[in-house]
Amino acid sequence: MLTSRSGVAGPDLEQIIRIIEIEGFGAAVTPEGNGTYTVEATPLKPEGEGGQRDVHEFDEGADVTVDARTPADPQVRGVPEPSQPAAPAAAAHATPPAAPAPPAAAAGTPPLTCIARDGLNLRSGPGTQYGVLRLLPFGAEVHAIKHDGDWVLVDQVGDGAADGYVLGAFLRQGSAAPLAAAPAPAAAAKAMVATPTSTSTFKPLDIPTLQTIMNRCAGVPIHSKLNLNQVVYALNKSMLLANANTLVREVAFLSQAVIETDYFRTFTEYGKGAGKDYYPFYGRGIHQLTWEQTYAACSQAVFHDSRLVQNPDLIISDIEVNVKATAWYWRDYKPFNSLADARNIDEIIHRLYGGKITSSNPKVRNSVLLRRSYYTTIGALLGLT
User: Are residues 168 and 214 located together in one domain of the fold?
Assistant: First the structure.
């Protein structure tokens, strides 16, 4: 565990915070002096309930609440945190212990800049199971001390002392562009139409862009029960892993993801496959993997074992499994990138959804038309020419 300069750290304090969050509360930390802190539980707005329906036959007006507690890092709501010793759930005091200082940052290392629009969580360890020390604001400069997978141990002051871990995907060399004041919702929606750009320019998603995609595709304001920070993380990482790293591929990827997830409101098929031939291997993940043979092929390709057949819910409970399964499905199983390059959206729809515009079933034809329209809508928003 690390100790931050402000003193808001230590295993005891982090345990208390995590236990409070697991119980469904927010945790407010107040310094009391002499290295002692008060942690108070604050109630959160409860999540709404989604309807039980097939993900391809959705009601556009369904409304559930956004869980936006955790800015700019991938932490799936509902994933069990590591077990912790019992602690008071309402208020407690903890004195964080000192920790040995890690190696100093290399002299002359250029600073990295936080590009997370809503701020970036600085954590006490390299993973979302570690407590949040504080929030780095957009534009904050840090120095990298070491890399640990996707995480970076950083020094915020430049004196070689470690402050905590952040997700490296939200850091870049050089200064961040100034962050403009947030426009009104209507103005933000109009401003989100991008300037036409080259098909070679991949555009990492952020929450405002994702929310605009959701609203524009649905035609109504959409509220998701998923944490949109986590959705953005999963989409960006899975697209890059899938080599959907050009704008034309990104638009194709997102145009199918938006309908498969009911406008990014669920990673699980509504109804969970009840009464369907493919149960219990119903749709899960960004592109809704379905059927046992698909889970088996994915599990062997990604993990070299049968874990997804034995426990298909891993795609829901572990965001990294969701990301890897999605990348494999898009890049290898069908595959889709060459079709995206050719802008053959109808064949992408056919391979992923199974329907064609020539179908005698009006529901299938309508779904194909809807998927086509999302390709056009998202392409216009991201500036695909």
Answer: no
